[in-house]
Amino acid sequence: MTTVRLPLFPLNSVLFPGLVLPLNIFEERYRAIMRELLKSPEDEPRRFAVVAIRDGHEVAPSAPGMPDQTAVPERGPAAGFGDEPVKAFHEVGCIADAATIRERADGSFEVLATGTTRVRLLSVDASGAFLTAELEELEEDPGDEAGALAEGVLRAFRQYQKRLAGARERSLSTGTELPDEPAVVSYLVAAAAMLDVPAKQSLLQAPDTASRLREELKLLRTETAIIRNLPSLPASDLTRGPTSLN
Fold it and tell me: Is-contact 19 191, C-beta < 8 A?
């Protein structure tokens, strides 16, 4: 078992290997992570781990709130995640490599990172300026019939795109060639489909590529059938996600 200890970055979303993650960082605990990463040489990976939040808040309250206006906001690296932070996060996450870290004049950061490797969360340390985690790196097992399943998922995904575009009464850009490598297909579709966090998390932690593709095939067929019966469906662009405000 290969383990690694990295800064931990909890989000209200799921990061997949190969996918780009833009971050707008203003909270002190996350600023501290970026300052630490900037100590590494530019030619070395600046890695941190991203996990989806199961129970807690990505941004800690910074002012007294309702109903008690005198309540003291939580502070520190584990603010918003309870006494045992490890229980607040999903077990499987993804390592991110920060290609760009730009510090603004006010001390906040603009970051562009890319997901690289899936990891299993083993423990969380809240004793420093930011959360750190011990993580087990997970290999990507192709499973059985991944190639054939990837072809089926791509066909279903194109149908899903067409249905979604029709429901929105607009066209989606489909000029970009989609990949044909099964693992890449599985992660791209998982990230692009309009699914909630639990569904995306389930796809991230699938035991192998084939299992993920089988689950995606079912989800795409179900979602396409639903969209067919909903002539007006609000949705965001398939290949764009909001910048996380941390």
Answer: yes
